[in-house]
Each structure stands twice: as structure tokens, then as C-alpha cells.
Amino acid sequence: MNLREMNWMQVEAYLEADDRIVIPLGSTEQHAYLSLFTDAILAERVALEACGPLGIPVCPVVPFGMTPRFLAYPGTISLRTETYLALLEDLVTSLHGQGFRRFVFVNGHGGNCPIWSSLSLWFEKNIDCRGVFHDWWRAPETWRIVTATDPVAMHASWMENFPWTRIAGIAQPDEAKPAIMLEQLHDVTPEMVRIRLGDGNFGGRYARADAEMHAIWAIAVEETRRVIAAV
């Protein structure tokens, strides 16, 4: 269930039988020739498709995350750690006050991962609640099929190139870009990151066949569904 398509009375009725809710976490950042909203699109879509048969509500995706190293690419928006933590704490506090007790964060952006160690403290204080942080793209079964499809799977490469993350009228390069060593992006300015990355793809092919991408997506949805159902 998509929370944006529900009214408050429907949510209240849902809470009479269940206290789970899913919160997709994304980012607005450069993804080479793909949408700046790629991480948000994928996190929200996998959450909605996973929750469909379960009847569990899905919050609108949080479209901003922590991505300071891409700030030299126009359109990238990054939150400070303290800002992001405060936002997520306010979000779960609001929902907790209404009766939600089990929270699944479906994360689509690697830069958001460090927030969980801080956000988990909120759950330690609210012992009647449970929180799960799920990186959908690198969950075990999903990552297994990704690397079996193509071992060079990196940021802004083919592994994020789904029909729903492409920009209409924008062609993808038909080539494989040499992979960058991630150490080259550590402790450098956003301007230097842009110089070293160029278009933003970390390495690998820009696109693969849609049939391969749909096969990966089907496993990601099923794996995410199992995580949510088990909370």
C-alpha cells in the first residue's frame, strides 16, 4: 500500500491489525547518464512491489541523503549527518506516536548506511519498537545475481540502469568504462572526485539487456519482501 494513496482513516484501520511500516531511503545525486533520482526511484519501487502482496504501507521515499563527495555535479543534494539523523528520528517518532512499532528502512544509497548506527540508538531507547535497515541492492541473493551477471557492477553503471531510471531521449554509451580504484575517491574534494570520475560512472558497462535487469529486479523484490514479512 502506498501511503500517499491512503487517507488517515484507512491508516487507522490498518493499525488495528498490524504495526509495520516501510520507509524507503534514497538520494538525489549524479548517476552519469541516469536520473539524479535513481537511488530514490529504486528504493521506493522495490519497497512498493515487495509490500503489495503483504498489505503493508510504504511511506513516500526520503529523496535526500548523505552524498557530499558528488557536490561538484550540478543537481546533487547532500544532507549533513546531523540533519539526516534528525529527519529520520522525527519521522519514526511521528509514526511511533500513532501506533507503528515495526519499521523497515529500504535503503537505496550506500552513503546513507552510516546513519544506522546512530538511528539504532532511537530503537534502543524505544524498546517496544523494532527497526531493520535493508540495503536492497546488496542483499545476499540480489548481489549474487548481480555479480553473476557481470562482476564489474559499480555506481552509475549498468547495475542501476533499469527502464525506470533512464532519462527519455538520453542514449547510454555502448562501452565498458575502466573501473576506478575506490581509494582514489577517499579524502579528496568534490571537485577532484569529478575530475577523476568524469561522467560519474565508477566503471563497467553502462547498460545491459532489459531481460537481465528484470531478472535481477524480480529477485530483489522477492528478497526485500521476505525481509519485510519477517519483521
From TrEMBL:
- Keyword Secreted assigned: no
Protein's GO biological process = riboflavin biosynthetic process
Q: Pfam families this protein is in?
A: Creatininase
Q: Which InterPro entries match?
A: Creatininase-like_sf, Creatininase/forma_Hydrolase
What are the record keywords, sorted?
Hydrolase, Metal-binding, Zinc
Q: What cofactor does this chain's UniProt record say it requires?
A: Zn(2+)
Q: Where are the transmembrane segments?
A: none
A single Gene Ontology MF term assigned here is: metal ion binding
Residues annotated as coiled-coil are none
- Determine if Zinc is one of this entry's keywords: yes
Which PANTHER family did the record assign? 2-AMINO-5-FORMYLAMINO-6-RIBOSYLAMINOPYRIMIDIN-4(3H)-ONE 5'-MONOPHOSPHATE DEFORMYLASE, 3-DEHYDRO-SCYLLO-INOSOSE HYDROLASE
Which family is annotated? Belongs to the creatininase superfamily.
Q: What is this protein called?
A: Creatininase family protein
Originating species: Gluconacetobacter aggeris
